[in-house]
Design a protein that fits this description.
CATH topology of the largest domain: Alkaline Phosphatase, subunit A
CATH architecture of the largest domain: 3-Layer(aba) Sandwich
Shape: globular
Mean pLDDT: 85
Number of helices: 11
Protein name: DUF1552 domain-containing protein
Oligomer: single chain
Strand order of the largest sheet: 2-10-3-9-8-1-5-4
Number of domains: 2
CATH class of the largest domain: Alpha Beta
Organism: Nannocystis punicea
Number of strands: 14
Pfam family, one: HXXSHH
Structural class: alpha/beta
Order of helices and strands: HEHEEHHEHHHHEHHEEEEEEEHEE
InterPro entries: DUF1552 (IPR011447), TAT_signal (IPR006311)
Low-confidence stretches: 1-37
Distance between the termini: 29 Å
């Protein structure tokens, strides 16, 4: 896509063009006033149901399955890319495609694999079952680990945005973090005062004027009550007090806009509208890019969900139960879920177009952002091996992009619902992401998982060959 067509896609008739905005990252390549280093950012894109592995994998030169290897992507034609990953071909110089990682910790509990996958994908911890709905984790997700380290006072520590997915983000105690589901809600979260040249309605202006005072008063009341409470209750109250202080700082910072604010999006298409998914994806992508570029936040998770049968060429039926679960036995189901994966690959490619089109300190916003695309499962049939993972950007740390990296499957991981042959644990990828963002730690989640032969699988340290 050309720069012109990318901006046209961003505008999309929704009043959200980048062309009319002043963004703090719109400086010459390698330059940022008063800053010698690029601001690091993390953007995680999660999609569901894993991938149809034979249609996702790539084997340039008929490489072996029995040894680790890597291959450059630069010389590959679009036809050389797999059916699912083909939309990403234009970004091949910026990608690291990771083939062979396993979610070993996800096999250590006897939960539905979707529950396990959502709770473990970004935390690396064991899932904790709840009676209804998704599971909890036993520690923070990588986005929260990074946000705690790099967010500055007054910023939104992290954004969690989705059409309607189960959670992937968990706080320090392992509890789920809520999503923003509506484009208008996301816009208001980022730009609470609306466009700078449009006066607020009288009632909204009055609310804004009193908001900070209400928050400050509530924080003072929490502080006054805390000394009279027991240890556990005092901890809860102090956590509320700290959250209120963070909210107070955010309200102050967001009212002092550092970039020209676009007009709010119009009414979002209803669920019944065929445009429901695409319109929301475009709005979420544009607004998240604006939030990162304006430095309103440095961490975001975008969980894509809600594709329709007609978008992936599926006959009548349920995408989950009738097609995802039958990819190994039904050619129609395999093609439907291949189309499903390719559709999301196209979403990710458009997102990378947007980030690549915004100049920033390290070159472009993509250079200054570690982008991770993965899933809660390895395959649509609930296996947790061969997780589909694509990295992009973050060139200040991941300094050897443009490669396909393969790890052989050598670890027999016993599962309470069945054993799996897996490659390296995905915890090591989470450690690599943390270190790329300047967070020095040797483990994210569990430190080891038992193997079938009685040995243990070390889950600490960085993933090899990424740098």
């Amino acid at each position: 896509m050309t720069s012109t067509s990318r901006r046209a896609w961003l505008r999309g008739g929704l009043g959200l063009g980048l062309g009319a905005l002043w963004l703090p990252s719109l400086l010459p390549r390698g330059a940022r006033a008063g800053d010698d280093a690029p601001v690091r950012r993390l953007l995680v894109v999660m999609t569901e149901h894993g991938a149809v592995y034979p249609r996702w994998r790539m084997r340039p030169g008929e490489m072996s399955e029995d040894e680790d290897w890597e291959a450059p992507l630069a010389s590959l034609s679009e036809a050389d890319f797999s059916e699912i990953l083909r939309p990403l071909h234009r970004h091949r110089a910026r990608l690291s495609i990771l083939d062979g990682l396993g979610n070993a910790v996800g096999l250590t509990t006897a939960l539905n694999e979707h529950k396990e996958g959502h709770a473990t994908a970004l935390t690396g911890t064991q899932a904790v079952d709840l009676e209804d709905g998704p599971a909890h984790a036993q520690g923070p997700s990588i986005d929260q680990i990074v946000a705690a380290a790099i967010a500055e006072p007054g910023q939104i520590a992290s954004l969690q945005v989705s059409h309607g997915s189960w959670p992937y983000s968990y706080d320090a105690s392992g509890k789920t973090l809520p999503y923003i589901y509506e484009p208008a809600e996301l816009y208001t979260r980022l730009f609470p005062d609306g466009p700078g040249d449009a006066p607020l309605p009288g009632d909204a202006a009055a609310i804004r004027a009193r908001q900070r005072g209400v928050v400050a008063l509530a924080r003072e009341q929490f502080a006054a009550v805390a000394p009279r409470l027991g240890a556990d209750d005092r901890l809860k109250v102090e956590q509320h007090r700290d959250l209120l202080r963070a909210l107070e700082l955010q309200l102050e910072a967001l009212s002092q806009k550092t970039c020209e604010v676009p007009a709010p999006p119009g009414a979002a298409a209803p669920w019944e509208d065929p445009e429901w998914y695409d319109q929301r994806t475009q709005l979420f992508t544009t607004l998240t890019a604006l939030a990162l570029s304006c430095d309103l936040t440095r961490v975001a998770v975008l969980a894509l969900w809600g594709l329709r049968n007609e978008q992936v060429g599926a006959p009548p039926g349920d995408l989950h139960n009738d097609f995802a679960h039958a990819v190994s036995s039904d050619p129609v189901a395999a093609q439907v879920m291949t189309n499903f994966g390719r559709y999301h690959a196209n979403d990710v490619a458009k997102l990378l177009d947007v980030l690549e089109d915004i100049p920033s300190a390290g070159g472009t916003l993509l250079d200054d952002t570690v982008v991770v695309w993965s899933s809660e499962l390895g395959t649509p049939e609930h296996q947790l091996y061969r997780l589909p993972v694509v990295l992009a950007g973050g060139t200040g740390y991941f300094d050897k992009p443009g490669r396909y990296l393969y790890w052989r499957q050598t670890n027999v991981v016993p599962g309470l619902l069945g054993d799996e042959l897996q490659g390296p644990p995905h915890n090591r990828l989470l450690v690599s992401i943390a270190r790329a963002m300047g967070v020095e730690r040797d483990a994210v989640g569990v430190t080891s998982v038992p193997l079938k032969n009685g040995a243990t699988l070390d889950c600490t340290g960085e993933l090899d060959r990424l740098r």
